[in-house]
Structure to design on (516 residues):
């Protein structure tokens, strides 16, 4: 990638994207697949920010339906269907049950979910149904039975966010794009009349700086969008309001059966999900305004209490702090709302801002709608950058790894068509077939594959975003770190000191995902 950057020299790229989360990667795939010369720079690793910290749902958003944001729900349901079609190895059809404890819940949510089904149209994942108390208990045997009247079952998508990010980066490259992690934008290049001409970046591994010129520059930095907007105009008003959401991971015994639970209205008016994910359960989330953006936000004590107490109110086995395998927080890049609005009322729709300099900033949105955000952003870039007109092809573009038939119980299914390369690695070096830790299914070959084919540069890249060990079981992931560091060090030709330092750094980071 660095060679490709150097070779391009001072020639302007058609499209330059800052930020390697869902939004930036979606724009990179869109631009590259439409034939534009495309480069994306990410300051840390792909999906290091919000895009690895979601609830892992590809959904229309039942909550947005409740709020009457029909346009967003329609768009998201459509995108849900497209993503399921284009990345079937990463998106599963998941049954959700809304347990009903009030007499009016059944008819109310059944009608609501029928509307949801109708809005999805042909791209629906299955019909919603009202089910009896007995059927609800059969589906979720450890649901609190007292006061239960029945349930409403509906379907949505469930996915692996960071794996999708990696596969999107690969899709962009397969279409001729250049994507680079650990390349941070430090300033903008401007013409004498203050039009943006490109960016200055620093390679975070070597400290080497580069100037990259482009006909269109896209700021897709999520909660960091204001820092780039202020490189453009130091007086730029605040455009982002970071809102924190926390999740905990529990063992599957807390949520038996195959269904997820959706609580549409908790005691304080929020939504709570408990969703099966990689043989564990993700429970969350919260919605807390925070003052400062950060790559490593931390859960607040009241958020932890809220999740444990609310989950405990619906489950027969109440989770406690020591049951938490991992806790993680993410920041929603919400667009600054109108006066008097609460964060939970702010639309999750996306917004594209064009600055006087010509820089394009895209904020808000959801993982589910990343493709549409990319399409809208590149349509804007064509206008601003005076690029030749093209038509989007991403609705029918397979994401790297896409395969329709696989065994979801095979721990390597998530690699889709790349699974064969991992098997080849194991054939050549049988020791790579060995599991890294008894508590998690990840094997050594995944580390080698991450380093050689998925641009992983650190132990954290491997354990947090290629294999999701940090998010699934933080303590186990710390125990895996020395072996991962040794394997990586060999593949990346690093020193012993690098290896030791990596283990130390990773351990420090992962401790922040453990609840004492
Ligand atoms: P990010 O992923 O944060 O990416 C921005 C990137 O820009 C970062 O990687 C950062 O390092 C990089 N960057 C910043 N500054 C620079 C610089 N100077 N140079 C280079 N790079 C830079 N959506 C769904 O569809 N389904 C869900 O279930 C869902 N659940 C969610 C739950 C929570 C708690 C949260 C917070 C969000 C959830 N979302 C969900 C929304 C979704 O996760 C976000 O909309 C999406 O991930 C935002 O992606 P992004 O690319 O805009 O931001």
């Amino acid at each position: 990638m660095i060679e490709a950057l150097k070779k391009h020299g001072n020639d302007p790229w058609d499209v330059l994207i800052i930020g390697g989360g869902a939004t930036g990667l979606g724009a990179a795939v869109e631009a590259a697949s439409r034939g534009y010369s495309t480069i994306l720079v990410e300051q840390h690793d792909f999906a290091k920010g919000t895009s690895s910290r979601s609830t892992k749902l590809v959904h229309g958003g039942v909550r947005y339906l409740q709020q009457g944001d029909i346009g967003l729900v329609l768009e998201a349901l459509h995108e849900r269907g497209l993503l399921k079609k284009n990345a079937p190895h990463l998106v599963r059809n998941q049954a959700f049950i809304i347990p009903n404890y009030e007499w009016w819940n059944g008819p109310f949510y059944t009608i609501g979910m029928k509307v949801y089904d109708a809005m999805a149209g042909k791209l629906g994942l299955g019909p919603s149904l009202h089910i009896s108390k007995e059927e609800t208990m059969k589906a979720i045997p450890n649901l609190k039975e007292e006061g239960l009247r029945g349930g409403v079952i509906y379907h949505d998508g469930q996915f692996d966010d960071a794996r999708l990010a990696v596969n999107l980066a690969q899709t962009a490259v397969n279409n001729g794009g250049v994507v680079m992690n650990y390349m941070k934008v430090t300033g903008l290049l401007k013409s004498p009349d203050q039009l943006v001409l490109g960016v200055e970046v620093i390679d975070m591994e070597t400290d080497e700086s580069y100037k990259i010129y482009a006909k269109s520059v896209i700021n897709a930095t999520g909660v960091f969008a204001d820092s780039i907007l202020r490189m453009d105009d130091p007086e730029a008003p605040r455009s982002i309001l970071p809102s924190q959401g926390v999740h905990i991971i529990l063992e599957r015994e807390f949520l038996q059966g195959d269904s997820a639970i959706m609580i549409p209205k908790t005691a304080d008016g929020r939504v709570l999900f408990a969703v099966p994910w990689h043989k564990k359960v993700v429970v969350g989330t919260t919605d807390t305004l925070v003052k400062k953006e950060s790559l490593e936000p931390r859960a607040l004590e009241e958020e932890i209490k809220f999740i444990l107490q609310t989950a405990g109110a619906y489950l027969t086995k109440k989770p406690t702090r020591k049951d938490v395998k991992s806790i993680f927080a993410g920041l929603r890049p919400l667009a600054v709302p109108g006066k008097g609005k609460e964060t939970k009322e702010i639309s999750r729709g996306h917004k594209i801002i064009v600055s006087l300099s010509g820089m394009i900033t895209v904020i808000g949105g959801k993982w589910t709608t990343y493709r549409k955000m990319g399409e809208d952003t590149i349509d804007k870039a064509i206008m601003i950058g005076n690029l030749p007109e093209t038509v989007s092809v991403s609705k029918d573009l397979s994401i790297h790894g896409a395969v329709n038939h696989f065994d979801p119980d095979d721990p390597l299914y998530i690699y889709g068509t790349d699974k064969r390369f991992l098997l080849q690695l194991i054939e050549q070096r049988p020791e790579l077939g060995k599991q890294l830790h008894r508590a998690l299914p990840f094997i050594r070959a995944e580390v080698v594959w991450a380093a050689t084919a998925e641009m992983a540069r650190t132990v954290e890249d491997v354990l947090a975003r290629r294999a999701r060990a940090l998010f699934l079981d933080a303590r186990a992931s710390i125990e895996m770190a020395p072996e991962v560091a040794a394997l990586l060090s060999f593949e990346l030709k690093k020193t012993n000191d690098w290896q030791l330092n990596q283990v130390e750094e990773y351990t420090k980071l992962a401790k922040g995902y453990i609840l004492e």
Q: What stands out?
A: The CA atoms of residues 174 and 400 lie 8 Å apart. The mean pLDDT is 95. The longest strand covers residues 240-251.
